[in-house]
Amino acid sequence: MTDLARQTQALFNLNAAAKPQFEQVTKVQEGMLEQAETFTRHWLERRQEALDTGLEALNEINSSDTPDPVAAIQTIAKWQRGSLERLTEDFREWMTVCLQPMQLAATPQSETKPADAASSGTDQGKAPSKPKGGAAASRAKSDHATPV
User: Fold this and answer.
1) Distance between CA atoms of residues 40 and 117, nearest Å
2) Ramachandran angles phi, psi of 48, nearest 5°
3) How many whole angstroms from its chain centre is CA 107?
4) Among candidates 50, 123, 113, 46, which has minimal Cα distance to 80?
5) Cα separation, 14 vs 23, whole angstroms
6) What pTM, to 2 d.p., does this model score?
7) Of the candidates 99, 113, 143, 105, which has an alpha carbon nearest to the alpha carbon of residue 26?
8) d(CA 76, CA 61)
9) Can you give the pLDDT of all 148 residues of the chain as single tens digits?
10) What torsion do the CA atoms of 137, 143, 144, 148 make, to the nearest 10 degrees?
11) In this structure, which of 22, 35, 51, 88 has its CB flanked by the most CB atoms within 10 Å?
């Protein structure tokens, strides 16, 4: 029983080789959390702006004693342009949120690439070729770390 306990304990001891990987996972998760918080805050601010400008548009439309359909359409179009700009910003910021973890995960790998190329000796100075076909693409993907 004590031998089994020692073997199990050895599984949970953090060895020096695994530490950088765990630190990288932590860095990626912290970055994801920061980006998600920022996106959520900005998204809610844009929704509040949409409500505020929508109310202003309604007040502007209803402010005159005589209805003016042309002015109402212009006011609505102005509000819709602002809404389209807000949606565009939502999309742009969402793409940043989606791409940022991949960039964080790739950072250490790009730092270690020169050392790997220097140690191989034969591939120095050669530009990496683009993989062609599905099998080559899957081989190329297997060279990269899988984010957790």
Assistant:
1) 41
2) -65, -40
3) 14
4) 50
5) 12
6) 0.56
7) 105
8) 9
9) 688 887 777 677 767 777 788 888 888 888 889 999 999 999 999 999 999 999 999 999 999 888 899 999 999 999 999 999 999 999 999 998 888 877 777 775 445 444 444 444 444 444 444 444 444 444 444 454 545 4
10) 100
11) 35
Alpha carbon distances (Å) from 57 to 60, 76, 78? 5, 7, 9
DSSP code string of the chain: -HHHHHHHHHHHS--TTTHHHHHHHHHHHHHHHHHHHHHHHHHHHHHHHHHHHHHHHHHHHHSSSS--HHHHHHHHHHHHHHHHHHHHHHHHHHHHHHHHHHHHHHHHHHHHHHHHHHHH-SSTTPPPPPP-HHHHHHHHHHTSPPP-
Structural contact between residues 26 and 104, judged by C-beta atoms closer than 8 angstroms? no
**Rounded Cα–Cα distance for residues 105 and 1 (Å):** 40
Cα separation, 45 vs 39, whole angstroms: 10
Take residue 13 and report the two structure tokens written for it.
């001891």
